[in-house]
Write a structure and sequence with these properties.
Layout lengths: L14 E5 L4 H12 L3 E6 L2 H11 L2 E4 L5 H15 L4 E4 L16 H33 L3 E6 L13 H20 L5 E8 L5 H9 L1 H8 L10 H12 L10 E4 L12
Parallel strand pairs: 1-2, 1-4, 2-3, 4-5, 5-6, 6-7
Helix pairs in contact: 1-2, 1-8, 3-4, 4-5, 6-7
The structure holds nicotinamide-adenine-dinucleotide.
InterPro entries: NAD(P)-bd_dom_sf, SDR_fam
Keywords: Oxidoreductase
GO molecular function, one term: oxidoreductase activity
């Protein structure tokens, strides 16, 4: 795994806005992008966690509910007003609540909430980040990089369904592809990051309580373990940087080989 003290400095002078920066993948990415030299704007609905993240990485905290159009618009304005550019948008905030389950038992309220937080939010974030990148491209010839967090469940079916979550991530994937194509000639790359299962506190707790549940999933992972958030953050740093200058409109799987597997090692 990446030694954070040995990371390269690919993002000096760039400004990165990260939603859901207070926890998990977002927090690991805030640390990584800051280590690579970026000005980091940590956006989260959770004031305590978001503030702590921003303080730790020497960035700026903006409290935002990513389902609120005005708050999202204000988020990118704050980033631009504070640092003078919006170069990277990592649209990552998302939820997977327990009442989103099989289609047969998931109610309309649960369905809609997950669609709002996981999919509508990405629409709003892209809508309000893009104009800054377009303007910058016109003025300087440098556009930007948008990375939207989808999931490996956007490309694979699971019998252990979370129906609205899966549908929302499929939407993120298709929207990212389309935006990547539409804005490619304006110097803006848009990619969908598709992580496999990540070793977050929630997942750890769940699987500690229910080892059978963990084993049922682990059998499908060729690598034989879940990802660490830092491994996902390293992929985001690559997609954010010019090292990925020809990677666009991609479904960028970081899944330990799950989506490529038929029979795994035992
Ligand atoms: N953890 C995994 O195994 C995994 C796998 C694939 C994809 N993902 C996706 O990665 C992203 C991050 O997941 P994570 O595991 O790091 O989650 P997490 O729960 O650790 O962090 C999510 C953050 O988003 C914030 N958030 C939630 N609702 C918000 C809202 N309305 N407005 C602003 N912020 C809000 C939370 O406060 C939290 O800080 C999500 O989109 C998730 O669907 C996670």
């Amino acid at each position: 795994m990446t030694d954070q003290t040995a990371v390269c400095r690919r993002l000096v002078g760039r400004t990165a806005v990260i939603t859901g920066a207070g926890s998990g993948i977002g927090l690991a990415t805030a640390r990584r992008l800051a280590a690579e030299g970026a000005n980091v704007v940590c956006a989260d609905i959770d004031e305590t966690a978001g503030k702590a993240a921003a303080e730790e990485v020497g960035g700026t905290f903006v409290q935002v509910d990513v389902t609120d159009a005005e708050q999202v618009e204000a988020l990118y304005k704050t980033a631009f007003d504070t640092y003078g550019s919006v170069d990277v948008a990592f649209n990552n905030a998302g939820i997977s609540p327990p009442d989103d389950d099989s289609i047969l038992t998931t109610g309309l309220d649960a369905w809609k909430r997950v669609q709002e937080v996981n999919l509508t939010s990405v629409y709003l974030c892209c809508k309000h980040a893009l104009p800054y990148m377009q303007r910058q491209f016109e003025q300087t010839g440098r556009g930007g990089s948008i990375i939207n967090t989808a999931s490996f469940v956007a490309v694979m079916g699971a019998a252990t369904s979370q129906i609205s979550y899966t549908a929302s991530k499929g939407g993120v994937l298709a929207m990212s592809r389309e935006l990547g194509v539409q804005f490619a000639r304006e110097g803006i790359r848009v990619n969908a990051l598709c992580p496999g299962p990540v070793n977050t506190p929630l997942l750890k707790e769940l699987f500690a309580k229910d080892p059978e549940r963990a084993a049922r999933r682990l059998v499908h992972v060729p690598v034989g373990r879940f990802a660490e958030p830092e491994e996902i953050a390293a992929a985001v740093a690559f997609l954010a940087s010019d090292d990925s200058s020809f990677v666009n409109a991609a479904e960028f799987l970081v899944d330990g080989g799950i989506a490529g597997a038929y029979v795994t090692p035992v």
